[in-house]
Each structure stands twice: as C-alpha cells, then as structure tokens.
User: Which sequence fits this backbone?
C-alpha cells in the first residue's frame, strides 16, 4: 500500500474527554458526513454558518477518488463528469460500510457499487478496493473517511483562519458502538478530536429547540412544551426521534433507526429496470463497471424526477447491446420500494410508541434528509401523524449540520448574549447494553431510550459450585439472544472465593457519560461483607476491535458455558 | 418493602461518604466502593432511589405536591445548569441524580412507591420531635451539656482529635457533633472546647439540649425551594430553640386544657420502651462506624431516663 497522504495524529481511539482549558475556547465545528453528501457548519458568533468549498458548494459529495495514486475527495475535487465517480476509481458510501463485517447484508448490497467490495462471508472486514490504472488498490472505509475529513478540515481552516481540532459529528441512530469507534478512529487519523457524536435526528431536534426558543423571544408567551417527531432519511440510513422541547431544552424521548435509505431505493429501482443486474455486474470488469455506472446515473435521475412529476422516461444505452427504454410512473416506483416505505412506517410507529406519545400530542412533524423530497415519504409521515402538513422552518438537507454546529458551540462552552445558545439536548441511548447470561441470553442493563448520562447496575451470580472465574461479555442491541447483538467487550473475573453456586454476588455496573463513553465495572461481593472480595474491574468499552463476529464465536468455543453467569432473581 | 428501605438507607449514606473520603484520590474507584458498599446494605429494588441520600423533591427543588409539568420544568432548568454539556465533566454525577429523580417522579407508580419510602425516612430522620436528646450520657446526668452549633462548625475535627469519645464527625454534613456527653474526662473536654477555632462548642442547659439537637439537624425543606436549599436549619439555633420550646409548651398546655391525650396516659414502662426504641434506631444508624462504641452505649442507655 502506498504511503498514506495523511498523518495519523493520534492512535488512541479512546482518549477521554478533554475540555479545552484555554481562556478562549475553540468553537467546535459541526460536520454532517452523509452517505452521499457532506456539509460543514460553524457558529460564527451570531448564527450558524455553512461553509462553502472553492466551488461555492455547501453540500459536497462524499467520495474519494484514488486516481493517479493521490487520493482526492469530493471537497476539493471537481468531477469532469458524473460517470467519473462511477468508474471504479472512487470510493463512496463509506458511511454504509464503516465498521461492518462481511456477513452484514448492507455490505452485500454494496457489492453492486462500481468499486470493489469483496466478501468471504466469515465475519471479517470486507475487502474494499478502488480501480487505479487497472489495479485494484485496497483501502478501508476508515481510511477513505479520514482522507475526506482531512480535506474538510483544510477547507474549514482556510475559511476560519484557525486550526480546527474539535468537531461534532452526526451519526445514524442505528450505529453500533463499534461503528462509532470506527468514526472516531477516522477522525483521529485526520487529526480531529470528536467532542460529541450526535445521532442525526437529535441534531435536528436541537435546531428545532433553538427555533422555538427564538419564536418565544419574539412573541412573548407561548413558551409551552412542544413535541416534535423528527424523521430523517438520507441515502444510507433512516432515523426517527421524538423530542419534547421547552425553554431551549430538547429532551429526546425516543430514538429509532435502521439501515434503509436512498441507496436501497436506488438499488431496488436498478433491479427493477434490469432484473439480472447483480449477476451481470458481479465480476467487475471494466465494461461492466461502465454499464453499471450508466444505469446508476439514469436511475438516480429518474428517482429525482419522480419527486416532481408523475412518470419518467428512462432511456439508456448500457453498451454490449443492452438498452433500457422504459416509462416508470410513480405508482410503479412506490410498489417497487414498498418494503422500504413499510420499514419507514414501522420505525415511526415504534418511536412514537417508545416515547409514549400520542399522535395528537405531536406539535410539529419534521421531515429532513434527501429522501424527504420523495412524495410517498412525506405522505406516509403525515398520514401516521394524521397531519396535513410538515414543519416548514428547516432546510431538509442542512438541518442536521446546523444542529451539530449548535451543539459544537454549546459543548465548547460558548454563550451568546442574545440567548441563541441557551440550549441543551438531553440524549438517550439508541440501543440497549447488557451482558450475556446462561444459555446465550441477553440481559439488558441499560435499556434502550435511557436518558444519558446514566448509570445502572444489576447483580449476577455463579452457576456452578466453587466457580472461581466468570466471563462478563458485554453486548449492545435489541436481540434476546446475544448472537443478534454486537459484542462490545468482555471482562474476565478471576479469583472469586470458592462458594456454593448462587452465593457470590457479581455486580455489573454500566456508566455512560454525556459524551457517550461507556464504562463497565464489575465487582464480586460475598454475603456478609461490604467490600469487594477482589479488586473491582473497570473497562472502557468497546474493547473488541476486529471482526467482532469472530471474537464472539471464539469466546464461545473456548469457554463455552463454563464461565457463565445468571441473573439474581430479584431483578428490577 | 418501603419500611426497610427507609430505615436502611440512612445507614448507607454516611458509609458511602466515608468511603468517598478515604478513596477520594481515585474517583472511579471510590465511586465503585461507594456503590458496592451501598449495595450490600439494602433491598436491591430500592437501590437507585435512595442512593443519593437526598430527597428527590429537594434535588429538583419542587414541592411534594407538584405536578408533572412543574417537575418537568424544574428538571429542565437544572439540566441547563448541571448537564455535562454545559457544566463539563463535573456535572456528570449530579446529572445522574437528576435523571434518576426525574425518572422516578415522572412515573406514577414509581413516585407513589418513592413517596411511601420517604415518609418512612422522614419519621426516622427525626422530623417529629421526640423530646429526647440525640446524644447519650456517660455517667450521671449533669445540669450542663455540650452542644455543637453545626452552623458555625467548619469541620476541622480538632474536638474529635482531643476528645474522641465525646465528639464525632458527621462525614456527610462535614461537621462535628456530640455523641456522648462527658464521654471523656473533663480535662480532655476542656481542651477540645478550647481548641475549636470558631468557638462553636457551647455549654448549654440540659433541658435545652433536646430542642437544640433536634433543630440543628438539617430538615428536608418542603414547598417551593430553590435548588441547593433542599436542606435547611435555623440560622440561629439558640433563638430557634427558645421559640420552639415556647411553642411546644403552648401546645402542651392546649392539649392539657382540652383532653387528656394518649401521650400522658403512657405508662412509665411504655415510655421507657419508646426511649429504648429510639435509642436503638439511633444506634443502628451509626453502628457501622461506631461499632467500638457499642459498649459505652449500652452501659449508658438506662442512665439517661
């Protein structure tokens, strides 16, 4: 592999929160790295300002091309033509690939992209490569993201005339903690320190809170609580949040998220237009890549047009005597993507249910993200909430980055004389965190949608007499069996004083702070004693840092149920 | 069972704060110790609720009768002050408590349970005046007694150093208190009174002692308090004691006047049992720190009455 064009400023992925102690706190910038587009915003002292690149664009394509051995990203690079991005030399959609193993369906669906995504289906990282001078040059999503972030950083530094270190990034709700570490890793590689990672809809919620706050300032009164449903669907992910807002405080009530997005809609359409496209493009020859690119661009165009017109004529010559000439109408489009829309609906319903909010109590419905332009999406959001219209005060593509910039200013300790930064988001955990107990069951310790920061604990005990060791395996997710959840790490406790089964009390405590750092503590207490029998273990998670599927299997193979735990009966 | 929750949580507080003091150098470690010691002490179900040792209503600065809306507003206001996004990492612990308090008070069933548990706590805390002093006596009763004005006390620990059988430090409140009247010989007591840099150790009449000791205890404040004023005690405890005893006398007189209350019909045996019970509770409360003092306690128990 060629020498990377960036330097790794910090290899430690888990550096703690360091609030800048200087007298003039550096304002953290907000970055929204979308699956397809990216933007940067910063609090300029009186309002949020979106930064533009040299070509005067606020929204920059998220990709990196490896042409001529020097990678260049969508911030500075000017594509001569859309097809250049689809020649195989450009890597994009990294947000969908980052932190995923090759058994993940999302990785599999990325195989039809012009660059190379190879899988072995055994739970390791997928092989990702860009075509450079007829050579497949391997890379990783982290590297691609880091190169892209370096460009963004350089752009912001030139415009703001200062060094940039602290950033607030938006992430999808459905990101696992492992994926979050990959994002942090990419930031560290780019020399950026992640001050906060905000789930995208919560960034939107913060912007909403600020807008409501300003309205209150302008017309006295009416500062009562407002409940908003935020639906955010971009190219890669779909997120929903319910927030209660009053006095500049946005209190997230529930989050729900999934890996469906515009990319799925696009692929469904491509498949609809050319049913055997996957087989056709699977061997990634030069000609196939070209045809694939042509199909992709044509389909994308058609989807855009279907947002404003009822039918569209698709006319594309893919070469190799393969021509597509078809009229697609909106109904057909909606039928092809029925499953995607159904998933969107179920996410909204689930989120409202988790938040314990009735649709009649919802004040505003906010739909943002690229997919919010699709009429079907707008209709389904409105019909679930039984409303005639959506909230109008936001630019659907800029809302998340503006919220991130606000959070950047708030978390950097900036205050505004006019009270525009008198804001706060109270976050919740998007996924449950718990441990494995007997027979691979998953016992959540911190349930989903728990207000952060939080600290919870549960007591467990041994399953065998004189069991001196236990393995506490920490998982994140919603599955009842650990196999469906993400492994975060493990703590092995040794030297438990011999005692009959069920006697030693193993306390597992989990602590999540406001910057979403998870600490797991485990201690053993014997009856009649008030002090831990052996030193307490404290571990920052996630600690597992490779193909997590493998690691879980290896743990199971080596230790099996020998080091199991059971929950103490008196569960809360 | 709420009853056990109430009584036991009192034990956990001083221990926890003591542990914090000892292991204060390592924050997370001490945090764990604090937690783990507490865990053993009480019913697990009550764990989160009484951990803080602080009334949730006081924490949020709302009245016991406040509705969900008021709690919500108070919570948000406090979050804006203490959330780590604003207050930095130092706000972490406090925000944890706010979140816990909010969660409990916003859920009807949890709140009902909690209300029941604090009612118990309040009784044990001595919110109801028993007419008995908190400190025990060593040897015969004397006309004068020692009293620490905890408002003035700076928690220097000099008195405990000089007369460790008489004074103790209340680690939770960071001030000294008389545990046993004349627990040490007179010379030691003299030195300890002299050594107090703020002159907060007073000789008072024995009759005044119960009222003073009752009033100096921080009482959970009800009504619409501002946060931080969750616990209160009179600024001038001596003045307060005077008016308090006066009020008591008036009340007594009233009761005398109207009907003969059950209290007066109490037999001497009942009174003794009651005194013993309250003594026992008192003992339990600090027994873990003061195991070694138990002998003195029991030898003095009867001499008081």
Assistant:
């Amino acid at each position: 592999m060629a020498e990377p064009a960036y330097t790794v400023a910090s290899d430690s992925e888990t550096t703690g929160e360091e609030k800048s102690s200087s007298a003039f706190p550096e304002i953290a910038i907000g970055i929204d790295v979308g699956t397809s587009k990216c933007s940067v915003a910063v609090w300029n002292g009186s309002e949020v300002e979106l930064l533009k690149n040299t070509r005067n664009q606020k929204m920059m394509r998220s990709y990196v091309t490896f042409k001529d051995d020097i990678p260049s990203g969508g911030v500075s690079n000017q594509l001569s033509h859309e097809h250049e991005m689809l020649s195989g030399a450009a890597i994009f959609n990294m947000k969908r690939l980052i932190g995923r193993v090759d058994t993940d369906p999302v990785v599999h669906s990325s195989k039809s992209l012009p660059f190379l995504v190879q899988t072995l289906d055994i739970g390791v990282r997928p092989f990702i490569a860009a075509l450079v001078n007829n050579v497949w040059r391997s890379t990783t999503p982290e590297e691609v993201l880091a190169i892209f972030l370096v460009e963004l950083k350089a752009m912001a530094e030139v415009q703001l005339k200062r060094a940039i270190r602290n950033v607030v990034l938006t992430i999808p709700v459905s990101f696992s903690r492992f994926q979050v570490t990959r994002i942090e890793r990419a930031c560290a590689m780019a020399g950026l320190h992640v001050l906060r990672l905000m789930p995208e809809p919560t960034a939107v919620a913060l912007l909403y809170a600020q807008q409501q706050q300003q309205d209150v300032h302008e017309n006295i009164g009416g500062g009562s609580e407002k409940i908003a449903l935020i639906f955010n669907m971009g190219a890669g992910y779909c997120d929903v949040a319910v927030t209660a807002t009053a006095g500049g405080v946005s209190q997230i009530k529930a989050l729900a998220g999934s890996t469906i997005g515009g990319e799925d809609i696009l692929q469904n359409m491509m498949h609809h237009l050319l049913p055997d496209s996957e087989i056709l493009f699977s061997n990634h020859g030069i000609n196939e890549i070209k045809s694939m690119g042509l199909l992709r661009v044509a389909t994308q165009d058609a989807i855009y047009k279907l947002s404003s017109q009822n039918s569209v004529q698709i006319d594309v010559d893919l070469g190799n005597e393969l021509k597509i000439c078809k009229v697609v109408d909106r109904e057909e489009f909606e039928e092809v993507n029925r499953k995607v829309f159904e998933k969107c609906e179920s996410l909204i319903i689930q989120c409202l249910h988790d938040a314990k909010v009735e649709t009649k109590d919802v004040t505003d419905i906010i739909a943002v993200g690229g997919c919010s332009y699709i009429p079907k999406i707008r209709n389904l959001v409105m019909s679930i909430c039984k409303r005639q219209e959506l909230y109008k005060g936001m630019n659907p593509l800029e809302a998340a980055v503006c919220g991130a910039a606000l959070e950047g200013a708030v978390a950097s300790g900036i205050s505004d004389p006019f009270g525009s930064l008198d804001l706060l988001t109270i976050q919740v955990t998007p996924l449950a965190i718990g441990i494995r107990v007997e027979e691979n069951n998953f016992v959540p310790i911190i349930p989903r949608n728990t207000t952060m920061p939080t600290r919870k604990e549960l007591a467990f005990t041994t399953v065998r007499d004189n069991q001196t060791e236990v393995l506490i395996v920490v998982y994140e997710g919603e599955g009842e069996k650990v196999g469906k959840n993400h492994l975060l790490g493990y703590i092995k406790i040794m030297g438990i004083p011999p005692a009959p089964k069920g006697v030693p009390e193993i306390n597992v405590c989990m602590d999540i702070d406001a910057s979403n750092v998870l600490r797991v503590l485990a201690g053993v207490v014997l009856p009649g004693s008030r002090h831990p029998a052996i030193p307490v273990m404290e571990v920052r998670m996630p600690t597992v840092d490779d193909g997590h599927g493998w690691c879980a299997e290896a743990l199971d193979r080596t230790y099996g149920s020998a080091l199991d735990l059971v929950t103490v009966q008196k569960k809360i | 069972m709420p009853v056990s929750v109430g009584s036991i949580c009192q034990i956990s507080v001083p221990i926890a704060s003591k542990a914090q003091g000892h292991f204060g150098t390592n924050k997370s470690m001490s945090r764990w110790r604090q937690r783990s010691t507490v865990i053993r002490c009480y019913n697990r179900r009550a764990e989160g609720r009484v951990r803080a040792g602080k009334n949730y209503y006081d924490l949020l600065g709302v009245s016991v009768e406040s509705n969900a809306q008021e709690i919500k507003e108070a919570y948000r206001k406090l979050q804006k002050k203490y959330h780590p996004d604003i207050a930095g990492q130092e706000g972490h612990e406090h925000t944890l408590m706010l979140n816990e308090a909010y969660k409990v008070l916003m859920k009807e069933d949890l709140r009902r349970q909690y209300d029941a548990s604090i009612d118990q706590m309040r009784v044990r805390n001595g919110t109801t005046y028993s007419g008995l002093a908190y400190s025990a006596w060593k040897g015969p009763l004397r006309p004068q007694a020692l009293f620490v004005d905890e408002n003035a006390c700076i928690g220097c620990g000099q008195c405990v150093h000089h007369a460790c059988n008489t004074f103790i430090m209340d680690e939770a409140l960071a001030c000294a208190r008389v545990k046993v009247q004349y627990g040490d010989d007179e010379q030691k007591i003299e030195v300890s009174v002299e050594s107090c840099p703020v002159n907060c150790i007073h000789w008072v009449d024995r009759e005044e002692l119960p009222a003073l000791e009752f009033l100096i205890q921080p009482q959970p404040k009800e009504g619409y308090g501002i946060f931080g004023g969750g616990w209160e005690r009179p600024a001038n405890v001596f003045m307060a004691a005077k008016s308090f005893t006066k009020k008591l006398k008036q009340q007594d007189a009233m009761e005398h006047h109207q009907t003969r209350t059950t209290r007066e019909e109490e037999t001497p045996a009942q009174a003794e049992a009651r005194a013993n019970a309250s003594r026992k509770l008192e003992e339990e409360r600090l027994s873990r720190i003061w195991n070694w003092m138990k002998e003195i306690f029991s030898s003095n128990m009867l001499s008081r009455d």
In short: Chain B touches chain A at residues 15, 28-29, 32-33, 35-37, 39-41, 44-45, 47-48, 69, 72-73, 76-77, 79-80, 83-86, 88-89, 91-92, 95-96, 99, 102-103 (CB under 8 Å).
